[in-house]
Amino acid sequence: MASDGGIFTFGDARFYGSTGALHLNAPIVDVASTPDGDGYWLVASDGGIFSFGDARFYGSTGAST
Predict the structure, then answer these.
(1) Would you say 38 and 44 are in contact if contact means Cβ atoms under 8 Å apart?
(2) Taking the model in full, what pTM does it have?
(3) 49-53/28-33 β-pairing
(4) I want to staple 27 with a disulfide (CB 3.0 to 4.6 A). Which of 3, 33, 35, 43 is the partner?
């Protein structure tokens, strides 16, 4: 994972999407996979959450003041 949200897969890891082509208000600082490994969430430093694969989106505080 890169700070712009670009995802790089290796081995048998699957690609479900990324924010690499988007303009983000804050950098991506963490990634978490779903329990079954078929998706992931990207977390931005401003509280933005981005979901991919089977990761469900429950809301986000990105760009909130």
Answers:
(1) no
(2) 0.83
(3) unpaired
(4) 3
